[in-house]
Write a structure and sequence with these properties.
This protein has 23 helices and 8 strands. The chain is α/β, with parallel strands linked by helices. It binds adenosine-5'-diphosphate and magnesium ion.
Length: about 500
């Protein structure tokens, strides 16, 4: 039996090798073993959690492709951490920890959703797989996993996405409170709950935390988590296979429907229509509905008005980019879970520089942690920058903050940074300030009022005026145009 598994793993590895450098293969795949195969699952034993996290977050798609090549269809990949060697510098064991729980702790620190889940495909790790040897909430989540076909495609339920692992800061306080209220009183207070905000800010985490909480406290609750993309795919399959009644029964009998990324419904009329009826059935039956989206209901284009209006029946909670303190707290929490310690200056550097996406923040931490555990080299600033070059660049590219705009503009015009927010009005200061406001409008998602607030409490009208003025001046004066272009390129660099 073992031999058969080894043989199968060798074949999969042959295919993995096609898409990865020999070094990386040696480092990440060579230490893994195939220890179990189920009808639609494979279980890999890896020597430590970093190994698992790394494979999940960087090679999910590659591994899945190799599995498909070898076996002809996809399998959900589960991991079992078998501690064979000390791997990472440990922090003292936390209460209730102990060696016995290492497996489940490691489980809790699964990678950043993985390349797979973001792309809506790839390796699915079902919550149930983590339940081995642990009692309590994880186990019961496992039962959710099996109650519905979670874990297919989009990653399904993630055991790590619980309230305990969620760091609350001003950016997500409201969404967190609303989610907790829903978890404690499903279908009573806020229905539907609509959580919206940018990529990687914790929407899926909060949504699944609701599911975990409900399952832990109400054993019989039928909780379904699905992305709207997967809902759409299943709907299409059901039409083609003539199994619509079954499909409808499944979703309309849920006690709690968690439906992720509903912006995907935009422009898909039949799926929208189907979801509309599902929504009504659940709502009328006093079942809880939770949705997430990358934008608020009112800004969902190509979505039927009747659906938008339903989304607005309950409560909408926005998640914003966490501030630097919250980012630091998130890093500290993840380090404790990963049982790694990075030097304070490195933590500070990460929190400051990787600012607009928590998923990326986690990815950076994992990268550094695995570097430390594997090379045992000391982390120096240049090494950190080298290891994270792509992530840092990406963050800088996507991230133009009002702060940064003010800094760059003040520097260019040689005025004090304080003048960006001061009440002083001489033209030599007012003009750069207006330029900065206009850039803020163009390069960030901030509204006129938010920009006004960031420029020393000015009102919405002042900012609008500044934007109009700069647009006009840019159009008529090539010199100003080139300055603006220069500033823009500096900001995006
Ligand atoms: P979204 O669905 O908004 O794109 P996710 O919920 O997938 O984002 O979050 C991305 C990653 O960041 C997840 O691993 C999640 O656990 C983590 N994360 C986001 N916000 C927080 C937070 N406030 N505390 C702890 N982890 C967080
Ligand atoms: Mg998400």
């Amino acid at each position: 039996m073992m031999q058969a598994l080894d043989g199968l793993w060798d074949k999969i590895c042959e295919n993995v090798r096609r898409g990865i450098s020999p070094d990386a293969f040696q480092r990440w795949f060579a230490p893994a073993r195939l220890v179990e195969t189920g009808e639609d699952t494979l279980t890999l034993a890896v020597p430590n959690s970093i190994q698992q996290l790394w494979i999940e977050s960087n090679y999910a798609t590659l591994l899945q492709d190799a599995i498909i090549l070898t076996l002809g269809d996809r399998r959900a990949v589960k991991f079992r951490v078998e501690m064979t060697a000390p791997v990472i510098s440990r922090v003292p064991e936390t209460a209730g920890g102990g060696v016995g729980s290492v497996g489940s702790d490691l489980f809790d620190v699964r990678g950043s959703g993985g390349a797979g889940s973001e792309a809506g495909r790839g390796v699915a790790v079902s919550a149930g797989s983590r339940a081995a040897g642990t009692a309590g909430s994880v186990g019961s989540v496992g039962s959710v996993g099996s109650a519905s076909t979670l874990g297919e495609g989009t990653g399904g339920f993630n055991a790590r996405y619980v309230f305990e692992n969620f760091v609350v800061g001003s950016s997500n306080q409201f969404a967190h409170a609303a989610a907790l209220a829903v978890a404690e009183n499903p279908a009573r207070i806020y229905n539907p709950l609509f959580i919206h905000g940018g990529v990687g800010l914790g929407k899926t985490h909060l949504m699944q935390a609701i599911g975990h909480h409900i399952v832990a406290h109400r054993k019989k609750a039928r909780v379904i988590y699905i992305s709207s993309e997967q809902f759409t795919n299943e709907f299409i399959d059901a039409i083609q296979q003539g199994t619509l009644p079954k499909f409808r029964r499944r979703y309309r009998q849920a006690d709690v429907l968690l439906i992720d990324d509903v912006q995907f419904f935009a422009g898909k009329e039949r799926s929208q229509d189907e979801f509309f009826h599902t929504f009504n059935a659940l709502f009328d039956g006093h079942r809880q509905i939770v949705m997430t989206s990358d934008r608020p209901p009112s800004e969902m284009q190509k979505l039927e008005a009747r659906l938008v209006s339903r989304f607005e029946w309950g409560i909408a909670a926005e998640m914003q980019v966490p501030d630097v303190e919250t980012r630091t707290a998130i890093l500290r929490k993840k380090m404790a879970q990963l049982q790694v310690t990075l030097p304070d200056d490195v933590v500070r550097f990460l929190a400051e520089r990787i600012s607009n996406n928590v998923r990326r923040l986690e990815g950076s931490l994992m990268r550094l942690a695995s570097f430390v555990s594997l090379s045992r080299e000391k982390l120096t600033q240049p090494r950190v920058e080298e290891l994270l070059r792509d992530l840092l660049q990406e963050d800088a590219r996507n991230q133009v903050t009002i702060d940064k705009i003010q800094r760059v503009v003040a520097e260019h015009y040689d005025v004090r940074l304080a003048d960006m927010t001061s009440k002083r009005r001489p033209a030599c200061i007012a003009f750069p300030r207006q330029v900065a406001m206009a850039l803020a409008r163009d390069l960030t998602r901030a509204s006129y009022s938010e920009i006004g607030a960031a420029f020393g409490g000015r009102d919405h009208g002042t900012v609008m005026h500044a934007c109009k003025l700069i647009t006009a001046r840019t159009a008529e004066d090539p010199k100003i145009r080139s300055v603006i272009m220069l500033l823009e390129s500096r900001l995006k660099a």
